[in-house]
Amino acid sequence: MNNETVRFSLGLRAALEGPEARFGDGSYNAVLVHHVESGPFAGRPEVADILRHVYRNGIDASSRSFAECRDMIDGAIRGRAKELTKELGYAIPEAEGILATAAAEYLDGRFSVTNRRALEML
After folding, report:
1. pTM attached to this predicted model
2. Among 109, 17, 23, 105, residue whose Cα is nearest residue 59
């Protein structure tokens, strides 16, 4: 992983602290996984590799809290995307790659996928 990806993984984690604190781990995790699977990272192999090891809680996608949490998550992702393209001048394909890898790293840490692999729990 290159330095830019590490930097954006840390930035994404910081940007997502707000919805995590507001909605709590359980709700936040459920909305996060649902949004990532159906949103901007759907189909990205680096993200799919992590998500296949993540438990999914049921969610009520019609609830107001779901919509608010999803919007906060989406805003955090869009903010990092804007930083890559507008402020740092990355071309969209390269920015997408950096952000997808950063998201995979964030999800890996959040759900301890690498640690569970190392302990042969997967």
Report:
1. 0.90
2. 23
Question: 22, 34, 107: which is closest to 74 by C-alpha?
Answer: 34
Dihedral angle sign, alpha carbons of residues 67, 68, 70, 75: positive
Number of domains in the chain: 1
* The token pair that represents 15 in the structure block: 């940007």
Hunting for tokens 């009520």 — which residue is that?
60
Q: How far apart are CA 110 and CA 43, in angstroms?
A: 20
Domain, as residue range, for 70: 3-118
* Residues 73 and 110 sit within 8 Å (Cβ to Cβ): no
CA angle 104, 5, 109 (to 5 degrees): 35
User: CB under 8 Å to 77, separation ≥6 — which residues?
Assistant: 12, 15, 39, 40, 99, 103
What's the token pair of residue 115?
């640690």
What does the pLDDT look like over 41-86, one tens digit per residue?
A: 988 999 999 999 998 888 888 899 999 999 999 999 999 999 999 9
CA distance 70 to 76: 10
